[in-house]
Amino acid sequence: MTRGPHAPVLWYLLPAYNEAANLPPLLADFRETMHAWDDAPTARVVVVDDGSTDETAAAARGVEGLDVTVLVHDPNQGLGAAMRTGITHVLAHGQDDDLLVTMDADHTHPPELIPGMVAKAHAGADLVIASRFQPGAEVHGLDALRTWISVVASWLLRCLFPGARDYTCGYRVYRVGLLRWGATRYGPEFLNQAGFSVMVDLLLKLRRRARRIDEVPLILRYDRKQGASKMKLLSTAITTLRLLARRFVGNPRGP
Question: In this structure, what CATH number is given to the domain that contains residue 193?
Fold first, then answer.
């Protein structure tokens, strides 16, 4: 289908589960980042309320000055389903030269990094990762066990799948055309992981097509997150290890 002139849109996807306390300050930070950004692109926010039992949807709609779409799951279906819903929405409404920012909704990822990440995309990167393993990265408020697991996971993934340093962080900028390629190439198996391993699998699949993957140092702010982490460490680790085994020695696309 032929389309007319199009100014690229910046899509901002936040999968959220019981984040009523964290979404307003996060969205306010995003709004301020956009206001302070010279020549900022048009921004459209997509919040996927994944079966929350609090007022997550109302909190997302209540932040003024942003174009916010809230998509609701009932019941909770997991991060993989929330990512699938959000990306499907962006592919249906966006164009290939748009950019999609994904970020945790718990206010641990600072939106202030977005302009620099978008600049790298404009310079030719198809995918930009906010990485804990780049010089200048900082981690505030994360306990020693989670830090150790992150380091070990990064080392293992870099050994098996060279191309990036941080495979697990969900703070990324994607070119929408790259996501559309993934959806076409893999069909229903593109986003087929139920939990947190969806972020690893998404990168493993897209790295086959991405012309360039860049990283910027992440400032991780667990010290300002309200509420407990949704990630179950043991089950996530086991699921991710099984996924890596399938992708490395087995089916590169399937379950």
Answer: 3.90.550.10
